[in-house]
What we know:
Blueprint: E1 3-7, H1 14-26, E2 30-35, E3 40-47, E4 56-64, E5 67-68, E6 79-82, H2 87-91, H3 95-106, E7 111-114, H4 119-124, E8 131-132, H5 139-144, E9 148-149, E10 154-157, E11 160-163, H6 169-182
Parallel strand pairs: 1-2, 1-6, 2-5, 6-7, 7-11, 8-9
Antiparallel strand pairs: 3-4, 10-11
Amino acid sequence: MTKILMPIGDAAEVIDTYYPYLRVQEEGWEPVVAGPEARRYALVLHERPPGWDITEERPGYHLDATVAFRDVDPAACAGLFLTGGRAPEYLRYDADLLRLVRHFFEARKPVAVVCHGIEIPSAAGVLRGRRATTVAKCRLDVEQGGGRYVDQACVVDGPLVSARTWHDIAPLMREFVRLVRAR
């Protein structure tokens, strides 16, 4: 069965996480949900209320990570999905996760990234020379990682597919599924 690695942590965004989690299963693929530890994680809802400059965060659903990053075999997975929310802010410091991310880029396996998820490949040093999109306030992460920020719903650059926010997740998943099928 095709496996898709889906790293999460506390404060991963609900729609950024659950939509791909369910979409992967619709394809008959297995989502491999991983975290810093194998445990239940609290997800959050992010929305920018009218007149606000930043997002409001509210409690959302929970999701179980069945494996810790250190125990993931990336060779067994056909693709990687990096979710958004606040989780990437701290997950980008996890050496085991960065090792996994580098594997997918070095092997040219499909990688999908939404919103703040871009902070992780930027920290892993794999954006150099690539085009990517993200939520506007993370543009700097793309650029400091050596990439070129593009403000559009979905950007495909080789095996990397990126989207700005959950509002753009349908085209992101359409392209990610296409890349995984083609591989």
